[in-house]
Amino acid sequence: MGSLESSGAEVVTVDVHATKNLINSGHKYLDVRTVEEYKKGHVGADKILNIPYMFNTPEGRVKNPQFLSEVSSVCNKEDQLIVGCQSGVRSLSAAADLLSAGFKHVSNMGGGYLAWVENGFLVQKPHTEL
């Protein structure tokens, strides 16, 4: 088990059903996908933030060097956060970084946005002009 003071805090992964309940009970949802991905559609939640964990560049994806400071500017370390991405890979790394930085209540949404959509949960998509 190990002590709670261990620096390698284990990331807790919750499925989309648990995530939906946590969002409904007031947790903030932190979408760490790119702005482009986010704009195509995202989890339907009142308290949602989009802070990319990685950026797409001509050389491939690179980590956002401002990620932790951007999250810290809009969240405090006691906030209850659920981190999600497209499939659950980036969010796992992002959640681990947040825990290492001292955030206390961080969970990872397993399966990401794709699993959310597969389950038919509420999504918000851009309104297109007809």
UniProtKB/TrEMBL annotation:
Domain of life the protein comes from: Eukaryota
InterPro entries in the record: Rhodanese-like_dom (IPR001763), Rhodanese-like_dom_sf (IPR036873), STR17/STR18/HARC1-like (IPR044684)
SMART domains: RHOD (SM00450)
Source species: Castanea mollissima (Chinese chestnut)
Pfam families: Rhodanese
Molecular function terms, GO-annotated: catalytic activity
Gene3D superfamilies, alphabetized: Rhodanese-like domain (3.40.250.10)
Protein name: Rhodanese domain-containing protein
Positions in coiled-coil regions: none
SUPFAM superfamilies named among the record's database cross-references: Rhodanese/Cell cycle control phosphatase
